[in-house]
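Quick review question:
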């Protein structure tokens, strides 16, 4: 029996105590329409594809949510402090109801719509731990993009210069040499 990309990713996360702890903290904040995204999932999948024995350390935990009722940036800072008290890692918590302004995009409809606007396809992913301990994924381009080790710019909102700079600055090719950039 072949597992789906979601099943493979769920199994990968279930074996990662640190990532599961992050998901439990995020769930405890009871934010509307939340996901942990970007490198949290992307890096775990790429590590698995490269058979790394130790996970690549995360610079931060990108926790995103959508609340059009309270878009104050100070709320995000308070949430980061609260999350840090529960698990002392660097949290980057952002309400996606206001983040469209950063890139002059039309307002996002929800968190999944916001994630679909991130720079590169493998970064456009997120996961949420539900109350019954199941996982919900969002991946507008599919999780298979991550498992294929293909990296391409988001075709829906192309930002070539940002894409190029991120590849160079993050030095992904050094950590994950099987990645193919297009």
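Suggested answer, residue by residue:
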């Amino acid at each position: 029996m072949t597992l789906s990309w979601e099943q493979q990713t769920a199994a990968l996360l279930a074996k990662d105590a640190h990532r599961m702890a992050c998901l439990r903290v995020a769930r405890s904040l009871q934010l509307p329409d939340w996901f942990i995204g970007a490198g949290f999932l992307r890096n775990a999948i790429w590590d698995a594809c490269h058979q790394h024995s130790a996970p690549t350390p995360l610079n931060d935990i990108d926790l995103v949510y959508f609340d059009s009722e309270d878009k104050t940036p100070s709320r995000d800072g308070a949430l980061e402090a609260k999350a840090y008290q529960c698990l002392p890692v660097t949290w980057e918590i952002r309400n996606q109801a206001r983040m469209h302004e950063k890139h002059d995009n039309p307002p996002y409809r929800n968190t999944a719509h916001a994630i679909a606007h991130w720079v590169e396809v493998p970064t456009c992913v997120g996961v949420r731990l539900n109350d019954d301990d199941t996982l919900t994924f969002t991946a507008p381009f599919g999780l298979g993009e991550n498992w294929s080790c293909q990296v391409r710019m988001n075709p829906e909102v192309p930002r070539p210069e940002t894409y190029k700079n991120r590849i160079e600055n993050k030095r992904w090719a050094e950590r994950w040499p099987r990645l193919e950039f297009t």
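Why it works: The CA atoms of residues 36 and 63 lie 4 Å apart. The mean pLDDT is 96.
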